[in-house]
Amino acid sequence: MKEFKIDAQRITPRELNRTIKKAAQDNDRIIIENPNAMHYMVAGLTKPVEVVIDGSAGYFAGTMIHGARVHINGNAGWFPADNMTEGEVIIDGSAGDGVGQGIYGGTVVVRKDVGSRTGEIMKNGTIIVGGNSGFMSGIFMMGGRMIILGDISDDAGESIIRGTIYVGGEIKSLGKNAKIDELEEKERNELKKLLESYNFHLEEDKYQRFRKIVPRSARPFYGQESEEGK
């Protein structure tokens, strides 16, 4: 495995991303040292390389990536993995608002708590949160799945259109067009397999406590007559 290290201490986000993209041509693994919570790190990377951010990241870490695997050893600010189409973003700490905003595919994992509006307008893909998620998580969700191991705050699933939000803890309140359903055993088995692949090992009774938030209607903005096809 070819590895390349970048010291981000005295360079701009543009210089860093230019260096990352150049290094991705000939290396399998890129390590960013001294990231100092810089914004926009690993933006727009389209090579299937591993990128390790050795510390915390600022806003929009891993935005618009396709195929890259990004591992943040610390925390992340707002909108990590924004509009990712394919790949993986793993955050060992916590993250701010808008985790996985607008993703089309791939997997986002945050091991601790996240802020509000997790998975806003996500179209597909998977978001896993090891802790709690803030208000309006899943707002305008169009597809994919979110798995919240802890609690989810106010207005969960606000105006959800498609997709599923699995919640292992408390659901404070639901947003418009959201309802709670029970899981089938097949879903519990799928959750267990997925979570264990990311080193989340839960007691068996925890899986029994999971519930899911799904849309009440696939056409929530058209009124009752349109929803019923009249």
TrEMBL record:
The organism's taxonomy opens as: Archaea, Methanobacteriati, Methanobacteriota, Methanomada group, Methanobacteria
Q: Which Gene3D superfamilies match?
A: Glutamate synthase, alpha subunit, C-terminal domain
Instruction: Cite the Pfam families for this sequence.
Output: GXGXG
Residue intervals of the Glutamate synthase alpha subunit C-terminal domain: 15-179
Q: Which GO terms describe its molecular function?
A: oxidoreductase activity
Kindly list any coiled-coil regions of this protein: none
Listed name of the protein: Tributyrin esterase
